[in-house]
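Run log, item B.
One chain of 360 residues. Sequence copied directly from the ordering sheet:
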Amino acid sequence: MESAPLTFAALAAATVTRWRTVLVVATGVVLLAMVLTFVLPPSYRATTSFVTADASIELPQSLSQLVNQPGLSGLAGQLGIGTSRDPSYSPAFYDKLLLSRELLTRLVESRFADPRSANPSDSANLVQLFGIKSDDSLRAVELTVRRLRRRARVTFDPQTSFVSVQVDARWPTLAADIANYAVGLVSAFNKEQRLSRAKAKREFLESRVEAAQSELRAAENAQRAFYEGNRQWRESPALSIEEGRLRRQVETASTLYLLLRQQYEGARLDEVNTTPLITIVDRAIPPRRREWPHRAFIAVTAGLLGVVLGVLWAGTRALFASWAERNPREAGLLRSAATRMATEVRHTLPTRHSGIGRDR
């Protein structure tokens, strides 16, 4: 007699009757997850933060006067003209800088206290601490940079110029050392960049001051020669016009020289200025609790996943049992094929193992 088709109620009932299977699968998944939490290395997260300095771009005097006019101030604000800012001082710049290949490479090649050793003087670079194995040293550095980029996270607030750096590592002291050293590299980069820019600006202004001084002396010499050769220049319209032209040249050259001289002195001060461009708010400290794994969360998640997998397995067995009851011949063929395959596998594996032993 052919059995009736399997309904949803019958499938649910058959699944519930196999509650032991569901329990076994769920328990197995939980046990596997808990074993992995003890086998896989833990991860600790250290956080450091700093505030960037503000540096607005100086606008020309004519443009500043135009921006400050009542009718154009609103439009200038929308266009960002009145609040121009050097991009290298923005928090977004530090986000890109901290995750850049150049800075991460320097970080990878730097040496840190080895947490695996009891001797405080022992040190190792991140290639060794991350356990990267490669015969090519450059390839090992590249792989370490990729892993470090995945373990680092930078967030920033453009309104307050607040930048936060988070680093995950296997050891708490290493995570804090990496975060603090990364901020140190940023500070060193800022200093190098600022000094190089200040030096280039000072050298450029120095040459322009010398040129402006030469132009001013030439204009003054031309004006003196005019006065010496034309004692009665006020009585001649042509000479009066010439005298006005020479006087304007001297005034223009003098104004230009004074402006360049003022900027030159400012560039000299910037070159020797040691004020930091970032202010550290919180230094990273070794965390007391690990970031991963959270065994309670993993156990609950694994339990729910195990129940779902158990229900699916029990439902699959119920479906197969119903199909086998309605198709006994096909089910018999399938069982015999599975039994034959299992037998062949059992006989093949020992043969291969013994062959390997004889080859050795």
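Observations after the first pass:
- The domain at 44-204+276-282 is CATH 3.30.1890 (Bacterial polysaccharide co-polymerase-like).
- The chain has two domains: 8-41+292-359, 44-204+276-282.
Flagged for discussion on Thursday.
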